[in-house]
Amino acid sequence: MRRVVFNQKGGVGKSSIACNLAAVSAAQGYRTLLIDLDAQGNSSHYLTGLTGDDLPTGIADFFKQVLAGGAAGKKARPPISETRFDNLHLIAATAELADLQPKLEAKHKINKLKKLLDGLAGDYERIYLDTPPALNFFTVSALIAADRCLIPFDCDSFSRQALYSLLDEIEELQEDHNEALVVEGIVVNQFQPRAALPQQMIDELFAEGLPVLPVYLMSSVRMRESHQVCMPLIHFDPRHKLTQQFVDLHGHLEGAA
User: Fold this and answer.
1) Helical (H) or strand (E) element with 251
2) Which of 14, 28, 142, 206 could pair with 129 as two cysteines, CB 3.0-4.6 Å apart?
3) How far apart are CA 226 and CA 244, in angstroms?
């Protein structure tokens, strides 16, 4: 299973969702890999506590090998880091990705990530891909490489308008590059159950036939606290309501597979 978490809009919780679902997967015994493709490196920091030059070279090293070509390019493989959490490994992202992007685009290396994941299929039962908030080279590479896509959504009018455009772009990519890609659903994030507008918006999305998933992730300061200590919720506060929502969302996705 290769699951990409993607939305072009920033601030909708892509990294939080990718890392917490990956952590639940690993905690439940699946050998799990998270690949961070965002030059901001939020997922890498969340899972390691490291920043800047202290982060491992990760996916940037892989793409540099690809650009080098020859035997090195054909056998390219990034350094994979163990995290302090059992069964959870990481291919980290660094700021260097931003400099590599135009070079990779110029050399049409859009399918290299898929080939990497094909080679890792025997090592990991679950692979999660965190993406930048833009439809750029790294995001398209992830959508081509994945077989499932989750779309975070945070219940405001700007997110809703962006959602329609995003779904159209994914459909076009499916037709042109990856017919096997399935949109698993829209993940309602930062949900406020006592507010009328979020529920109204969700009801409208359901009425339009959009694939809103039945588990909503609540808004909670506990998530920000888990970011601060660099520990996914399943380890930071396993009994918290938001943690249980991630467990339930993971269970729903596994059951629907």
Assistant:
1) helix 241-256
2) 142
3) 15
Helices 137-145 and 96-106 cross at an angle (nearest 10°) of 70
CATH architecture group of domain 2-256 = 3-Layer(aba) Sandwich (3.40)
Q: Residue 197: is its pLDDT beyond 90?
A: no
**Token output for 200:** 């109204």
Asked if 89 contacts 120 with a C-beta cutoff of 8 angstroms, the reply is no
Domain boundaries, the chain: 2-256
Start-to-end CA distance of the chain, whole Å, equals 9
The SS3 call for residue 90 is strand
SS3 101: helix
Predicted confidence at residue 107, as pLDDT, reads 93
In the predicted model, what is the mean pLDDT of the chain?
95
CA distance 207 to 147: 26
Provide the residue type at 227 as one letter: H
**Is residue 203 classed as helix, strand or coil in its secondary structure?**
helix
Q: Report which residue type is found at 41.
A: G
Residue 74 has a pLDDT of 80
